[in-house]
Task: inverse folding
């Protein structure tokens, strides 16, 4: 089938997880699929949302919850969007200023020596500041509807900290996080690579927890577009997905990670020092100067473990977080929204044309596996990674309201 469109404009944010788009462009993979693609680096996630909605971008690197929230009408102008491909698993981290890390260490040196680090020492710092009449700490996330917001809140709440009552959470573009931390405007942040590593490299921040320590293979970004664009251009969409799957496979090869760091570090993409960009791609990125992370950590994953597959269970988990924190009300039909937005059927069609194995199921229970396992419900068996949550929880997409109501801290309680 001939392509309905050959010229595309796709948006991205300066982050290591834009890699499939950058690789498809730089390695000629888009061109090999008959596509002429212009990549547009955008300043903020709000820009991405609005430009895709109005048609100024044909598709984009998006936060996993964004197309869900836009479709629900709780994030900008209501627009039917879809996510036919996941761009990565993991990749983000929670970082605090060195001063705050030292204050936490003084209170609980044992706890701060453990991994993953709990927020319990932070809870004590917050209590002491409150008793002294000091202003609340300020943490930044990249967008209200982001895995970063939900990771940070999950980590805080597990230690008894109410994110809406005990501190302030503000929004900051990813590339501004390290500078704002250095300036003292914020006390911590949750963001994707390489901006945590930059704060560490500059001596301003200390990483307390990587995403892979909170949820061993948690979702992050997706490739998104309007449903209308997908409906008008099915062959073009399939070619685009083929290119991105091929690029993700390339990006996940260990022997390609050094070249990938060089590609991403370029001014066209992340525009950061290559050695900083490389820290989440190769080796063990440090928590702090002189404190390396574990060698066996999967800091960012592009294709392995079915990482490119748009699991509906991931969509439902994002929606449970919106419910937990009051971003949506209990009337939302979570299953129907997830089914309309996350489109594993479109992924399977593109993967089949490449001979790439794809899951045959749309959902999976999360948090079941403490060791590597194999997904047999696929076009060919797919090796999978441990998927535990840091608090030992499990998530079943068949019971979203029960899950959202099951936390001691949150805005939602089931009737």
Result:
């Amino acid at each position: 089938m001939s392509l309905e469109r050959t010229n595309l404009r796709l948006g991205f944010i300066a982050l290591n997880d834009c890699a499939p788009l950058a690789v498809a462009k730089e390695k000629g993979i888009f061109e090999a699929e008959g596509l002429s693609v212009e990549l547009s680096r955008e300043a903020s996630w709000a820009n991405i949302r609005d430009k895709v909605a109005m048609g100024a971008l044909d598709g984009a690197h998006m936060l996993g919850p964004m197309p869900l929230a836009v479709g629900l009408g709780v994030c900008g102008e209501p627009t039917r969007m879809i996510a036919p491909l996941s761009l990565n698993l993991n990749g983000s981290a929670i970082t605090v200023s060195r001063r705050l890390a030292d204050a936490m260490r003084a209170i609980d040196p044992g706890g701060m020596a453990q991994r993953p680090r709990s927020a319990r020492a932070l809870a004590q710092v917050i209590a002491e500041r409150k008793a002294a009449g000091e202003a609340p700490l300020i943490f930044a996330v990249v967008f209200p509807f982001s895995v970063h917001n939900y990771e940070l809140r999950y980590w805080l709440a597990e230690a008894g900290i109410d994110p809406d009552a005990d501190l302030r959470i503000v929004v900051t573009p990813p590339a501004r996080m390290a500078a704002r931390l250095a300036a003292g405007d914020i006390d911590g942040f949750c963001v994707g690579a390489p901006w945590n590593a930059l704060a560490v490299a500059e001596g301003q921040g200390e990483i307390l927890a990587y995403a892979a320590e909170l949820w061993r293979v948690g979702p992050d970004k997706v490739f998104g577009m309007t449903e209308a664009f997908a409906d008008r251009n099915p062959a073009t969409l399939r070619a685009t997905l083929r290119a991105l799957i091929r690029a993700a496979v390339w990006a996940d090869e260990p022997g390609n990670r050094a070249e990938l760091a060089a590609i991403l570090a370029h001014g066209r993409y992340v525009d950061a020092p290559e050695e900083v960009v490389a820290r989440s791609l190769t080796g063990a990125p440090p928590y702090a100067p002189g404190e390396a992370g574990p060698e066996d950590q999967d800091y960012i994953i592009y294709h392995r473990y079915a990482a490119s597959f748009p699991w509906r269970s991931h969509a439902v988990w994002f929606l449970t977080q919106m419910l937990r924190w009051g971003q949506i009300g209990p009337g939302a039909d979570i299953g129907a929204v997830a089914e309309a937005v996350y489109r594993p059927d479109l992924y399977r069609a593109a993967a089949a044309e490449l001979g790439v194995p794809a899951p045959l199921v749309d959902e999976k229970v999360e948090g079941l596996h403490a060791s590597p396992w194999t997904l047999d419900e696929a076009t060919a068996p797919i090796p999978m990674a441990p998927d535990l949550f840091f608090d030992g929880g499990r998530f079943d997409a068949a019971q979203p309201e029960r899950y959202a109501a099951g936390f001691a801290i949150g805005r939602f309680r089931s009737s």
Summary: The radius of gyration is 20 Å.
